[in-house]
Backbone:
DNA sequence: CATGGTATGATTGTATACAATTATACGCAA
DNA sequence: TTGCGTATAATTGTATACAATCATACCATG
């Protein structure tokens, strides 16, 4: 995406308003702005071709999400993900993904179930061939379908936020050999949902997160966040 | 608080920046601005004695919290709490308060435990005398101690947000006869934490939320959010 | 009377100007 | 050299000006 032409893309996914916000957000999550780095309103505004006003508004939102810290009259500083935060998020997600899977049993649509099935089938293909990028994308999509199928805007919103938040870690995780294993777990979760077995679905989704976390710990993938 | 003198209170709890945000937030949660009401930047700015700029920044944050919806080039509209949202939040909180109580077993400090004890003791006093306002305040404080004692900024932040969000409902709930029962449940949770029994603490905190929710349903307290 | 187009006003979106605050650099004295 | 105080620059905080968009009312036309 071209920095200077942000204004032209009003018809795109996000309004210009949300644009600046999502752009800065991405840049933080993707590591362009490092931990503790100071974000200056004019500099970022120039880079995105807008004035300070929308940048400031974006900063306020980013602070609320915990991605930056704003010290009054001083500046905005990137709040890097800490190992402790990742651990916490995975444990929180474990509970919430479980709840989500439970609710999905009752509320998932035929279409969503079919898309899940297709997703898993495709992932088997890419896992066998070591296509890491596609695996990450498919994992992303699987969880988003799950979130959307629980029929709770509250939970969906929350889980999508956390999912985004640990994006950096997740990519690394799937780049390791867990992709195939993870996909098998997806399959079991889907089957439990299809059988309308909420206890089983919850337990499996629960464990899925714990497994993902323990895999990261075992492979030492968290060292880069210290 | 006087509307016109917001600027003078810079030394107070929140900076002026956060002030406007928290003030509008309160006004929504307390029902001053009703569901679907349109919030106009100039009007609110005048009421608070500030210009549109800080108001707009506050709007952005409020939207992220889900308290208002901003339609580009149109306006900001209050998003009232829906019964479904309350149900979802209580179920989500059930899981998370459980996790929080579990973590508290390991991480609570002597001081926090003592404050909990004092809180419960005091609540017995006020419950017996039907002091509803004090009960609400004590309940508020109990949960905040719990959140702070879990040693997870992530979980603490999340639970405090939800706690605030259902403030209106909670007040009504405690105004009914559940205050005393709720306090007994607090006592059991505290004791499980003191005994360092995470499974029991989690289960009790879990059930505490479910009981609170079912009480609301039984008493028909949710009808006012339809 | 219904319909559609246009003008007008209201409101939001963005940029900029000015004020307040903070960080930095420099000079001076101990 | 070190420490302190002041001047200066840089940055944020707020208000306002202007642009863009949307809602409304009015009028013309069928």
Residues:
């Amino acid at each position: 995406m071209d920095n200077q032409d942000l204004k032209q893309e009003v018809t795109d996914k996000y309004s210009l308003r949300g644009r600046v916000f999502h752009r800065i957000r991405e840049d933080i999550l993707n590591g362009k702005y490092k931990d503790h780095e100071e974000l200056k309103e004019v500099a970022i505004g120039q880079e995105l071709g807008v004035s300070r006003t929308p940048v400031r508004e974006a900063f306020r939102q980013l602070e609320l999400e915990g991605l930056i810290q704003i010290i009054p009259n001083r500046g905005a500083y990137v709040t890097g993900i800490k190992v402790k935060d990742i651990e916490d998020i995975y444990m929180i997600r474990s509970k919430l993904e479980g709840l989500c899977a439970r609710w999905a049993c009752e509320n998932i649509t035929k279409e969503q179930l079919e898309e899940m099935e297709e997703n898993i089938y495709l992932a088997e293909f890419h896992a066998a061939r070591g296509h890491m990028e596609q695996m990450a994308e498919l994992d992303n999509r699987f969880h988003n379908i799950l979130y959307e199928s629980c029929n709770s805007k509250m939970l969906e919103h929350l889980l999508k936020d956390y999912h985004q938040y640990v994006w950096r870690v997740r990519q690394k995780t799937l780049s390791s050999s867990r992709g195939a294993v993870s996909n098998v777990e997806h399959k079991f979760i889907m089957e439990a949902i299809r059988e309308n077995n909420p206890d089983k679905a919850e337990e499996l989704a629960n464990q899925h997160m714990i497994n993902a976390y323990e895999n990261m710990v075992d492979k030492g993938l968290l060292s880069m966040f210290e």
The radius of gyration of chain B is 19 Å.
